[in-house]
Amino acid sequence: MPISNRIVIASQSFNHNARFLKQAIDGLSDEEWVRRPCDHTNHMLWIVGHMAWSRTMVLARLGDEWTTPWMKLYARGAKCIESPDCPTPKEAMVAWDETCSRLNTAIEAASEERLDTPATQGPPSADGKLSGVVNFMALHETYHVGQASYVRCWLGHVGVMG
């Protein structure tokens, strides 16, 4: 089924973000994944974990429940903390890849009827429907890709965009 015109830009944004995030983490050591500019900012592991968590929220609304035991550490409002439950960078990227694949499938399968579902409490929706939530979540993710790009540069690596 073709992707609904109401979420096609979101779909494209999710796909761009997936590529940009891979560029942002390219060549980082495990130690760099948990360095952060100051105590009030997030490190790369938190950013990736949060982006994966965010995608699981979109997936759930589109009818595909998927998670990991550690995903709650990166939920909305969660603080960047050290925990023995934190995944390794490799585990975080395995989860990220899984959410990317599942999200593409879920977006392609999203019917107009599902997209017309009234938005529930949570992320904003410009149209008051699930379609608006999907669009907002793509914007939200782009914000965090920007954070990942910044952290990469702060760590001394070449920027994502060159």
Q: What do you see in this structure?
A:
The N and C termini lie far apart (36 Å). With 162 residues, the chain is mainly alpha-helical. The protein has one domain: dinb family like domain (Four Helix Bundle (Hemerythrin (Met), subunit A)), CATH 1.20.120.450. The chain is built from six helices and no strands. The mean pLDDT is 96.
Keywords:
single chain; mainly alpha; Four Helix Bundle (Hemerythrin (Met), subunit A); 6 helices; globular
- Give the topology string: H per helix, E per strand: HHHHHH
Mean pLDDT: 96
CATH homologous superfamily assignment: dinb family like domain
Percentage beta strand = under 5%
Please summarize what this structure is.
With 162 residues, the chain is mainly α. It has helices at 8-25, 30-33, 44-61, 89-109, 112-115, 130-154.
Layout of SSEs?
Layout: H1 8-25, H2 30-33, H3 44-61, H4 89-109, H5 112-115, H6 130-154
Helix pairs in contact: 1-6, 3-4, 3-6
